[in-house]
Write a structure and sequence with these properties.
- The protein is mainly alpha-helical.
- 57% of the residues lie in helices and 3% in strands.
- The chain contains six helices and two strands; from the N terminus they run ααααββαα.
- It has helices at 2-19, 24-36, 56-69, 73-91, 132-148, 151-174, and strands at 111-113, 118-120.
- The protein has a two-stranded antiparallel sheet.
- Strand 1 and strand 2 form a beta hairpin.
- Helix 1 (2-19) runs antiparallel to helix 2 (24-36) and helix 1 (2-19) packs parallel to helix 5.
- The mean pLDDT is 93.
Length: 183
Amino acid sequence: MATTHVFVGLALVTPAAVVVPELATPLAIGAIVGGLLPDVDLVLSHRKTLHFPAFGVVAAGLAVGLAAVVPSASTAALAACVVSAWVHAVSDALGGGPEMDPWRNPSERAVYDHARGAWIRPRRLIRYDGAPEDALLATMLAVSALVAFSGPVRWLIVTGVVVSLAYALCRRRLVEWVPDWIE
């Protein structure tokens, strides 16, 4: 689920937000944007166009290095965004494939590896986005972020948990309502 990716990003930046509280909001914004950004390719070639599991590590390293050398709200947000986007791409291989109904006809394509020019196979630790185990993981990841962040960020986290649980409850029925061109 997109929310799970957001909560992973928030969990990753939580230690830095606790140590440097003045950067908490930029870190949260970067993590949220980075957690969502790769899935903009949902209407293109999903898990291929904007997912970079191999090359993303280079961009993440450069962004973190920049934030370490030139610490600011902007560099912290950028680093959080790039790291979260990379971890999103990598972690998609832990779930099912990109198809809308993986319980009917699962593919052997999880995320495209541009470095090898081939698809990484799904590991199916999370059977599909919105599976009960996905909602459980999202909720568990949200706990540390709820403790570390405050104000509007905390309300976004609570909203994300509610959306995650609602999505998981109706996920399998949503396939009937999705247009054929989204796949």
